[in-house]
Design goal:
Elements lengths: L5 H13 L56 E3 L6 E3 L6 E9 L5 E9 L3 E8 L7 E4 L2 E4 L6 E2 L2 E2 H15 L4 E7 L12 E12 L4 E13 L4 E8 L7 E9 L2 E8 L8 E10 L5 E7 L9 E7 L2
Antiparallel strand pairs: 1-2, 3-4, 4-5, 5-10, 6-7, 8-9, 11-12, 11-18, 12-13, 13-14, 14-15, 15-16, 16-17, 17-18
Length: 308
């Protein structure tokens, strides 16, 4: 990638700021492209495969319902980080700060979550690509001066005024929360029964600056009345639990209101949650709770299995 020194970039910025004309035309270095870990063909959409029918033991009362062909999705491309994940690349079960590698074996991200039989939820944070002499600003790597306390001829207050806001705005690597897997066909969603699901909750933790499994999940699905509700219990006294308010089950998914911090010393915040059922007979459920941009530290993914 063609690198442009920060001295030149700052000179252009200062020159543009001092002019009285319209918007300046500044040449910006090409953004760094994030590699993916897709071991198959790059960026191919998930294929759908027929899965043989099989009987599973559950707590619903419609075990005689025939199982339709189950949409199968073993891979996904995350929205914020453009990193591709494939269920088959990771161990089954709980994942804690697992390195995500590109085709050359270089670590590009860290992942925490839970890789279940039919669903996969987690939180991912991109690794910092820069060394001690570089800084990442808006996906561009800018070289720092070798002279201590000086960059592009700026020192002291000028240095902190120009560089400080840029660094503070982008010092946290990009991160994502996600869920995906083999969705339950709508025709195979149970028609009756009340089922409890228990599992994990994952997100980026501002306290430790890591992605981690940060709590537990419990959801209750009332298939006869097509309702679902639940709770994400977050570890730590100062962290707020997230209540998943009762919502309608529509098709093989659901969407409703998420409330963080009910009966907590910190302020209550409202957001939304969504999710889907996974497995031939809705053996699993996964989803995420999200909040506004200034509250994105509360964003949490979850997955859970039927309690037998």
């Amino acid at each position: 990638m063609k690198k442009t020194s920060l001295a030149i970039a700052l000179s252009l910025i200062l020159t543009a700021c001092g002019s009285s004309g319209g918007k300046p035309s500044i040449s910006i270095p090409t953004a760094i492209q994030t590699p993916t870990i897709n071991n198959s063909s790059s960026n191919k959409p998930a294929t759908q495969e027929a899965v043989p029918s099989k009987q599973t033991q559950g707590t619903t009362s419609n075990q005689s319902t025939p199982v339709a062909t189950m949409p199968k999705s073993d891979e996904t491309k995350l929205n914020n980080t453009s990193v591709s994940l494939n269920k088959n690349d990771f161990i089954k079960g709980e994942i804690n700060k697992e390195p995500v590698l590109d085709q050359n074996g270089k670590e590009i991200a860290q992942l925490s979550g839970y890789n279940r039989a039919y669903s996969f939820n987690g939180a991912l944070i991109k690794s910092k690509d820069s060394g001690p002499g570089e800084i990442i600003v808006e996906k561009m790597v800018l070289k720092l001066s070798d002279k201590a306390g000086a960059i592009g001829g700026l020192i002291g207050y000028g240095f902190s005024k120009v560089i400080g806001p840029l660094f503070n705005a982008t010092k946290n690597p990009e991160r994502d929360i996600f869920y995906f897997g083999s969705e339950t066909p709508e025709s195979s969603i149970p028609k009756s029964g009340i089922v409890t699901y228990k599992g994990n909750a994952s997100r980026y933790d501002n306290v430790t600056a890591q992605v981690k499994n940060i709590g537990t999940t419990e959801l209750i699905a009332d298939f006869e009345n097509k309702k679902i509700k639940g709770e994400l219990t977050i570890d730590g006294f100062l962290r707020r639990n997230i209540s998943l308010k009762e919502a309608d089950i529509q098709g093989n998914g659901f969407k409703g209101e998420a409330v963080a911090g009910e009966n907590h010393i910190l302020k209550t915040r409202k957001g939304e949650y969504e999710g889907k059922f996974y497995g031939p007979r809705a053996e699993e459920v996964a989803g995420k709770a999200t909040f506004s941009e200034e509250l994105k530290a509360l964003n949490t993914s979850f997955s859970a299995e039927q309690v037998k």
